[in-house]
Structure formats: C-alpha cells, structure tokens
Amino acid sequence: MLRTHTCGELSLEHVNQDVILCGWVQRIRDKGGMVWLDLRDRYGLTQLLFEEGKTPPEVLETARSLGREFVISTKGEVIERLSKNDKIATGSIEIRVSELTILNPAKLPPFLIEDETDGGDDIRMKYRYLDLRRNAVRKNLELRHQVARHTRSYLDNLNFIEVETPVLIKSTPEGARDFVVPSRMNPGEFYALPQSPQTFKQLLMVAGFDRYYQIVKCFRDEDLRADRQPEFTQIDCEMSFVTQEDILNTFEGLIRNLFSKVKGIELPEVPRMTYADAMRLYGSDKPDIRFDMKFVELKGADQDLTSGKGFGVFDDAELVVGICAPGCAVYTRKQMDELTDWVKRPQIGAKGLIYVRYNEDGTVKSSVDKFYSEEDLRKWVTTFDAKPGDLILLLSGQGDKARKQLNEVRLEMGSRLGFRNPDDYRVLWVLDFPLLEYGEAENRWFAMHHPFTSPKPEDIPFLATDLGAVRANAYDMVINGVEVGGGSVRIFERDLQQQMFEVLGFTPEEAQNQFGFLMNAFEFGAPPHAGIAFGFDRLCSLFGGVDSIRDFIAFPKNNSGRDVMIDSPSTIEDKQLKELSIAISTIQ
Amino acid sequence: MLRTHTCGELSLEHVNQDVILCGWVQRIRDKGGMVWLDLRDRYGLTQLLFEEGKTPPEVLETARSLGREFVISTKGEVIERLSKNDKIATGSIEIRVSELTILNPAKLPPFLIEDETDGGDDIRMKYRYLDLRRNAVRKNLELRHQVARHTRSYLDNLNFIEVETPVLIKSTPEGARDFVVPSRMNPGEFYALPQSPQTFKQLLMVAGFDRYYQIVKCFRDEDLRADRQPEFTQIDCEMSFVTQEDILNTFEGLIRNLFSKVKGIELPEVPRMTYADAMRLYGSDKPDIRFDMKFVELKGADQDLTSGKGFGVFDDAELVVGICAPGCAVYTRKQMDELTDWVKRPQIGAKGLIYVRYNEDGTVKSSVDKFYSEEDLRKWVTTFDAKPGDLILLLSGQGDKARKQLNEVRLEMGSRLGFRNPDDYRVLWVLDFPLLEYGEAENRWFAMHHPFTSPKPEDIPFLATDLGAVRANAYDMVINGVEVGGGSVRIFERDLQQQMFEVLGFTPEEAQNQFGFLMNAFEFGAPPHAGIAFGFDRLCSLFGGVDSIRDFIAFPKNNSGRDVMIDSPSTIEDKQLKELSIAISTIQ
User: Fold this and answer.
1) What DSSP string describes B158-206?
2) Which of A266-275, B116-125, B439-448 has the largest mean confidence?
3) Contact call for residues A527 and A492 (beta carbons, < 8 A)
4) Chain A to chain B, count of Cβ pairs less than 8 Å apart?
5) Which residues does chain B have within 8 Å of residue A148's beta carbon, measured at their own beta carbons?
6) Contact, A150 vs A253, CB < 8 A?
7) ipTM
8) Taking 80 as the threshold, does the pLDDT of residue A174 lie above it?
9) pTM for the complete prediction?
10) How far B100 CA sits from the closest chain A CA (Å)?
11) What is the rounded end-to-end Cα distance, in angstroms, of chain A?
12) B-chain residues within 8 Å CB-CB of A192?
C-alpha cells in the first residue's frame, strides 16, 4: 500500500507514530510561519502541519506550491492538536509532515468540491467524476451499497437464490418501448434489452427454483422526465407455492429490515388499503399517509348535501368532494385566491375551488354563502368533522377527475402545513388493483400491471361480462406517497393466460409468437407463484431523503438520454453499420 | 404458504405430524395394494404412501392418474419408513397421504428430468426451464450464487463499495466488437454495451472511491466458440493508492477465501511466475501447474546438444525443446505413431515428434538413433534429468511456434497420465506480461491487456526504441491452466496515456474523441490505481469442475448467439425501425 492509514482513522491513540497518508488537497491555510493542509480521501479528512524551522524547507516549499485537488503522499508524525475540532473523527490530531510527494497535480476544478458546491447541474454532470468526490454524492452511493447489501442478506437468509437473467432478450410490443440491439450474426434480427426479467423469473419458478431474486438493470426507451432514467435497477423477486399474503409478509419484512439496518428505524406493521379505498379517500393509488386529511364527499354515492340550492356548479357535478385543512381558517382572501389560481393551472385543471371557513369563534364563512344557508354549511362542517379554525376545501365535477385534482390539493396543503417530513416514513400496501384499464386513445383494454397478473378467482366470471370490474391479485408498496414496489400473484395455467391475451387484443398467433415459450412452459408443470419488484434507485433516494433518483446513480443520463461526460450516444463507423446489416434512415 | 414443509426437511423427529407438501411428481411405483410416489422440490425428495384400504379411495384414484412432473399439493401424516433409504435426507420417513390436489397437470416432458438425462443439447436448450429442474443443473446455479455471495462478503469486509456502472455507454473501435443500441432520441447515434466497465471504474478511482467492485454483465459481439457467450459476467475490481503487490495479495485472498468457503479447500500461498518463464517452461501464458513436465531445451539460447550430427531437422531449427513423460518408455510403436499423428493435426501443426525411450533396463532408444550416438542420447537424458522408464518427447522449429506446439503435447500427456484431476486446484499468478503485441495482419502494435495498462517504469524508455521489449505491470490469475482473471496497474497520468494512444496508432483527435473524458479526468487529480477482473462464469465452472461455462448460466445462448427457448433475436416491427431512424440493409 502507498499509505499506512487512511485519512479517516487516526486519533490520539496514534500519537507519536510515523504514518504515511495519501489523498487529495482539500484546503490550505498559510499563516506565514505555519501552513495547515486538509488532506481528504473517502474515509475522512486529516490535518497536515508544516512549520517554518521544523519542517524541512523543501517540503514547506512543495506544500506552498500545492493547489486544490492535487494528489499527494505524505509522511509524518501524529501529534496532538492544540485546538481540537470535534466535528471530524480525526479532529484531535494532526500530522507534523516530514516528507511530501506530489503523486499527480490537478488543474483547478470547474466547481467547488465541497458539500455546498457552486457548480450547476450541467457542469457537474460533465465532470461527474469530480461531483462524485463531494461527500454528499459519495454518501448516496455508499447508502445504495448498504441497501443492496442488506437486501441480499435478508433474502439469502430466506433461501432465495440470486439468478442472473439475460440482458439480450426478445422484443415484445406489449408495454413500454424496448431498446433493441441489432444482431450481426442474424442479419435483420434484433435483441431487446429487458424492461424487467418478468418472463424469465416465471420460467425459473416453472424450473422449480422456488425462491428467486436479482438486483438487476432494466431498460425502457421512454421519453424521460426528471425522475426517469433509460436504465434503472430493480430488486426483482419471485416465490412459488405462496399466496398473496406470503408475499406481503415476506417483503414487508424486507422493507422493515432495511429501515432497521440502514436507517435505524423500527417500523410498525405495514397497514393495507384497497385500491378502491385509496382512490375514494385520497384520489390516488399511492396515498401519502404521513397525514390524514381524507376526502369527504358532500355529494356522491352515499348522500347529497349540495343539490337544489341554486348553485349550478354543484348541481351539475357528479361528485362534490373536499378535504379539511386543520387550522387554515385564518387563510386570507389573498391566500385563497393564490390557492384557487394554483388549482386552475393546466397541470391540475380544476375549474375553481370552493371553501368553507370554520372560524375559531365558531362562525362559518364560505365562498358560496350566496347559495347555502348557515344551516347547510354547518351540516357540511359536521360531515367533515371539522374543528373551529379549520378550512374546508371543495372541488366538484366528474368523479375520477375531481378526486385526482383534490389529491393534488391535499398533497399541496400537506406540504404547506409541514405534514410531509422526509424523515417520517409511512409504508402502505395498496391491494386489489383492477386487472385491466381502458385505453381511450387505443380503444382497447390494457393490463394495469402486466399480462401475467392473475385475476382474483372470484372475479374470473367478469372476464366474460365486465372487464372493468375484474380485480387483480396485485399489490403496490407505497412509501410517503411514492410507489416503491409492486407485484402480483401470477397466472400459471395456460388456458387462463391465453384468455388474458385474448382480452388484451392479441390474436392467438401473436400470443404464441411473442409469449409461446411461457405458455408452453405452463403445460409442463408450472407451480402457483407470485412476485414483486422494487424500484431500487427510487428506494435508495427515499432512504436518502432526496427526491431525485439521479443523485443515487453513479453515472446517470440527462433528460435527452445522454451521458454528457462520455458524450454518448454517438455516431458509429460505417463498417459497424455494414456488419450489422443496418443503415441510418432519418426519413420518416 | 401452500405448504407446511419443503420436500427436503422432514425426518424422524416429525413422525406423527400432519404436514402439507407441494412439488413435482418425480416417480410413481404402483405395486397393486400400495402406491409410492416421490415428490420433488428444490430442497429434496419425499416419499408419499398410498395404501388400499387406508387411503381414501378418491385420493388413491387421483394418485394413480398422476403423471411425471404434475404439480401437486398433498396432506398427510409423517410415518417412519419400514425400509429406509440412507441416500436421501428424508429417507427415514414417508407421508401417509390423506388429501391430494393436482395444482397443475403436466404434459410428458420431452426428456427425462433425472441426473442422467436422455435429452440432447438442442432439446434441453429449447426447454431450458425443464433442464433447470435437473439436480445437476440447479446445483450449478446454486454454486454460482454461493460464489457471488462469498465474493461480495469478502470485498465488503475490505471496505470495497459495489457501484453499478452504466450499460448504455459509448462505442469505441479499440478492442473487440461492440454490441450497439440505436438511440431513438438522438437519431443516427448509438449507445454501445460495455465490454467491461474499465473506464468507469478508473473514473471512480479519480472520484476517490478508493475501493470499487461490481459483479457485472459485459458484452462482446464476437463469433462464438463453445466456450464463449455474447453476454458474460465479471467480478470487476479497482483500488487506489496501491502497488501491484497489494492487488496480488488482496485477490489471492479472495480466491483462497472462495476455495475455503465454497469448496472447503485451504489453498497454499499462490506461486508466481513471469510471463517469460511461463512461455519458456510451458509454452503458454496460462500453464497448468498441476503437474511438472517443464520444457527442457536441447538447442536454444543456452546450449546446443543436437547440431552437427547430420539430422537436418534439428540443424535447421531455432529451438529443439522437449518434455519428459514419466513412466512412458513402455509406449508401443503404435502408441508413438498415434501420438505423432496427433501432433501433426492442423490444430497443432507440428511436422513430427522425436522421442527418446529411457528404458527401465537403462538402455536408451530413440527415433533418431541413426544420427545420434548413445553418448549423445545419454547427454540428453541427463539434461532432462530423466529416470529409467521415462519417455522424452521432442519438437523443433521456430521458437514460439515449437513451444506452443509442445504446450499442447504437454497438456495431452498430462491428461493421459491422469495428472489433470479437476478436483486438484493449482492457482498461479503470471506476471510481467509484455505491454504490446504486434498484429502481423494489421501491421501495427496492439495493447496486450488494454490501452490503460501501465508500462513498468524501468521499461518506459523502450517506448521510444523497442516496443516489443516493454513489459507491463500486468498480471493474470491462472487456475489449472485456465485464465480466470487478469488486470494491471493503470496509467494515471495524462501524458503517458496520450503517449500510449500514439503508440497504438491513434491520432490525437481520435484519442481525444474516444477517450478524452478519461484523459481530461487525469488532469484533475487522478490517484495511482490498479485493478483486476475475474471471469465469473469461468470461475464458477472451475469450482464446479466442469469445462463449459454454459452449464453455469441460467439462460445461455447457443453458438449463433440465439436463445432458442425464447427464439431471440427476432425481427422487430417497422414502426420500431422508423422510430429508431434505422433501416435493414443487407446489401454489403
């Protein structure tokens, strides 16, 4: 080793020892007769001391020639510091340097390599290797390693086997867009990169592997949003001879184990909610349950407390639904106007926002006082179980649309009220998703999860009569309003799988051509099986308390799918194109 | 769970318990009044008992209707077996069945799901999910999981961080052929799949990650031999502030740890050999040192014991080199002829094979008696340090060529003499590889390892004068004659890296265009670093004592790069081609 110790391990017990350290120059303070240098490596910072009269002159001269981020090797004696720094592990000692070697000089970095940097996103991505030197970024990747390590340990202990499934697979038009790879040896043919190892893990169950997992790269050629990457990582799992309940218990165990091991947080049992309840009470299939503010319907399936009073908007609405924001009756007119403008933005698209103030003094005041009597309003207040000082916010319109809009209002109010603390973790299972959803544009039914998800046995008759009513044995895990994982009990019988493909509009030939290998496999003794996959990047970002998954990926791509550091994608040579039997064709 | 126990865990201590088991029907023996069924899962076999008069009639009827590989669930009481089977863990008990449910019937499999199968390669690959049910194949993948697990554990304990590097990277013409991925969002541009994460792991060192590893898929679009796969897995590692010695010690430690943990074998310290010695003494850069039979030169740099006696073949040869095969003086004329034909095959291409028999009775006999006196031959025998009963085998010709041919003869004789036991593991470091090798066809120098390998500091002057003489700080790990890993101390200074690209025939523009990101990174404080990568599939096959890596990959591809199970690669839709701005072009 070029060093005897790292920059993070020396303490008072090493005093008087001669040590060799290597690392990067973090900071130099030259006070005339004394020069202090902070030397940095992955493990910490150690202070080096150069002193006129005591340090060899040529060493002092070299020290004064150093710049930020120079890589040096230094030898010296560990001594006790006069003024200790209790903020760092090595703060009680410093090194009286006797030898100093520049291993590699450094140009001035284009941004500050500090916890708070002056570099913008673009420049930090271009010099990602410098950005990764910052503690904050490196710690994210260390956290990622810990999450992976404890995931493997938990699953290994439960007899899961990690099996690598292929990356060069077959393109299937169902689902998102595939990345494809031209095959040189099979001209005109292509591999696809997997969007998930779904069919392979099911085949492993058919093969009797019983318990499989894999932490695995997956790929989707979709237009990228801030939060998406063309390549991402999943914790992919599958089990045989289990029920949905077994999956929920096993993977609730995984998540609680991770929180305990990685964050030191002991989570309570994970509550469960049906998809139907989630939509009705939160207007979302991934409700943030760190705070209450459940939806209350003034006009809906159960009652109508709004019609016939001359307020056309409510009279015409299918649903009048609201939330009660605690302590917000003090909102000023200006604040209400601002909130109303906020819900009218095209991203949310509400027509307006009706409020009822239940003032601290017990009076009620509403933006629809003109139509509703105090008695009417007090009925509403009672329905909402509002307390004096609360503010009721109401939206109306078509059911699903109004709920979706109110979900946004609820989340916004939750944020404004400080109810969405990233360190407060609330995990939730959402169950009983619909099997199918109707694509208006395509005029056909789509699998809500994927085509291998099994309908609830009691709902199978609806496959012939009412596709929208079929519920699936599918489940999502939601943490703080973010979907971190999802899965389902799978179809394992050929006939049902074939019926599912028919429902999705596949001809028997298409089904056989694309998924024949799986349906054939089901004929040779397929066990009942079920599984789940977690978005690993997302899970890590949640553990890190950060919104963007990009901060938890070593070398992420930007929103155009480019790696600006290596400048990829790029053109390739004509020779390569020829060998692959393809040509560039930008004519659409 | 659909079961209370697996098929591998019941023993006498469970007698009288009611249990539920699930699994596959392995075998049924119907002896009239009694029916026995072997139920199989990943964990083992359990015998089920059905008995006329005791088993409910409808259960017995169902049992008799079962076929091989049916998936069943069964309930019954654990009872002690009359005739125990000590070959299986559950051999002391059986289950007296009271309930039986067919979870999924099975068609007759196209081959026997037994340790010894009747299925050929092609049919087993097409039904890989059935082949994977066989103990032998499943155990290979379980072994693979164990090797991965202990690798991670060893490296985690040494403070290595596993970091995922990108799969969608940039194509570079240096090295093997890339698989490429057209970018839809960047028309006319392509990603490449990584042949290794080489540049990324070096950037992680520049980023201060200090110790990195990754068990990672890599890709090479090469014509496939039996032993190659287009996608393969590496254990990829890199360390900063280390010397070659540190890498050798750290990864010798890894391999010894794996042998200890996975195989229960405590390996001695790993011997080391220079590339020059390996070539001189074994004619190979990956010598199999399970047996001796080192090369001895009768005519070479040091001496000439063959010239001037009228044997033109030796007189004209640059090198006369041989091995001494212990106890083989008894080889008959027929055996010698057969061996001579063997070395003359085009795969080896020797012109002939000269032998000297040192008979048990002390006499010497050679195929070149006509030219060499007994005294000559006795000198040869002494030079070889041969014992009575040994057989000396000699080849001659141009040095490298003769050595390469003799390497084949040595390995063949080693096999024939039973010296190459797959359970006898001999690990070896080969050091000091040449930095460059000359490509006759291309008429230029190539990096023997890769362009990022550092020359030995003392050989740097030769970069200007004698490229063939420059040795690299590069090393391979060889086990039983198979290269399982290799690496090098890396270049970490921009100027030397640039010089290296020049030597390899890059223009400055080409070097900057393809590897500018790395050379730029070297300017911002790159630490000295070194690394290694192990072929994970190969390592697993060695641990399993099997030659083919394919047996250790869950879903391998055949020699045309096809996955015959899912029928991939395949054509894709015109819509996909258009979106990707490419067209099929089979005109060359």
Assistant:
1) TT-EE-PPPSSB---SSSSPPPEEE-SSSTT-EEE--S-SHHHHHHHHH
2) A266-275
3) yes
4) 359
5) 162
6) no
7) 0.95
8) no
9) 0.95
10) 15
11) 58
12) 568, 572
